[in-house]
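Data availability (excerpt). The following record was deposited with the supplementary files.
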Amino acid sequence: QGGTMAAALAEVSSPRGVRDAENLGGTRTNEQLVADTLRRAEGHGRENLKEFISKKREIFLTQMSLDVKQAEIRKLEERALRREEALTRSERMLEEDALRFEGFLKENDLKVQEAIRAGEAETKQKNDRVQEIKRINAQMTVIKTELSKTRDRLDDCRRYKTFLDDITDPEFFAAVGDAKRMRSLERREKRRIKRDAYAAMVDAIGLADREIPDKERALEEAKRKGRKAEAAAQLELEAAIKAAQDAREAVDAEPSPPGTPENDDSDSEVPMYFTSPRQLPEIYGQLEEANLFLIQNAQETEDILEDLKNKEKEVRSRMDAENASLRTQVERLEAQIASEEAKADALLNGGASSTKSKKKSGPLSNVAPAPGSDVSLERLDEKTAEVYARAGFAPDPSIST
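Predicted structure:
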């Protein structure tokens, strides 16, 4: 019997027995296993106490070893589970990172595409703006050309206007100026009438306001006289108040009168004297006739002036010849005078009587004409007077030949 029990315990403590027990009992305890083993061994007999304790010790050691191995197994399973979870998390994180990276790549591709499209749009917009600038520059060039042509036409029109103003009758401008002054006076008169009417309306307000206190005092006096007088005074007071209100409303509705402007001249331009194309040919005809008359007068005057110049040349040449002849005669006379004065000085040395008689008669009284000279002194005086007369001067009696 003891041997049978020991065999049963050995079977239980063996690895196969442990595995069978685990398979059969699952979570059965060590005591339950021992009790089952003892029940199975009762049929084989009882063994001694020593063997039982030894077997019990082996069972305990085996059970302890089993528990340690099971704890290690659980630790390893937990560690493997944690590693699996870590691997799962790492795989999930890798997948998420891959998804994010793919999203980043897609987003980057989208941004690149958008940047390319934006660059193309900017380039297109820049080209459009360059074309627009070229078009605007071309338009500006055309406008400047048109402006230059317009300025040239304006200058031509101003010259034409100046020309037309020059050939316009001055009385027309005087009439236009009188008309403008009359319009200015009429505008001033209208403004004065408006100011007077506005001032009269303001004065009416003041007069109505001054009448109200009088009507109130009259109403107080009428109350003591009777109801009829009071009613009449009340009606007069209401009429005065109504008149004052109407005057104020009229002033409020009426705009303030305009003041005198700094420039009272109307902006209307001076009308042109020429209103029909036929007026210019008529003016041209009149001017042509006047010019022809002036041209004829100028030609006649030029002819007369030319004749006068020719006569002046002839007279000047003749006078120059006569002056030369007269100068020659004067020189000869001066030579004769010098010789006679020398003779007179010689005679003065001879006697006082002869000197006195020579002084009375003059130094030229007994002077004979120079040899070869057939001109008398009277003839010289006549020629000299004629030269002065032709030259336009009066003869000088102080100069004697």
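Summary of structural features: Residues 219 and 233 are 5 Å apart (CA to CA).
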